[in-house]
Specification:
With about 170 residues, this protein is α/β, with parallel strands linked by helices. It has helices spanning about 15-25, 30, 45-55, 70-80, 100-110, 140-150; strands at about 5-10, 35-40, 60-65, 85-90, 115, 125, 130, 140, 160-165. The strands form two sheets. The protein has a six-stranded mixed beta sheet with strand order 3-2-1-4-9-5. Strands 6-7-8 form a three-stranded antiparallel beta sheet. The longest helix is centred in the first third of the chain and has 12 residues, at about 15-25.
Amino acid sequence: MLLSICIPTFNRCASLDKLLFDISNIDKELISKIQVCISNNFSDDSTEDVIESYKKKINIKAITQINNIGAYKNLLYVLNMADGIWSVAIGDDDCLGEEFNELIRLIDNANKNLVIINGTFEMHNQKKIFINFFGSGLLTKINIQKKLLTNGLYPFGYIGNYTFPSIYFKN
């Protein structure tokens, strides 16, 4: 699996339905390269029905929490569900445009040292990246993992603004 699209959700079945519709319309040659991971944070609406209705169109891995674990823990949970080489976290109320096809094509041809934040990135020596969000220049995989462990995901921008190799999120 190339890309896991990780969606934490809670009581937004209508928005989730629109997002899953967008995902189901990803270019045919790319749809087989993605997995959709959904962590339902104990919703009491029709979220389960919406997820079930897309399982024949999209490769979906879903779980319903046994109680509400909070938004941030739900985000971390869904990122840990990812089986893809790459992970992108998006909100259940986000939508995907045509540019998402380009993201999939980009990572399909990239090595595992690329991190995309806010859509801006630059490769250096195939092993380091530049992230202008930090204003600190070159960061290594170790620097990014350290920031993830100490500060969580928030320093990297809002949900939907980052694509990482999945291994960065495990545990």
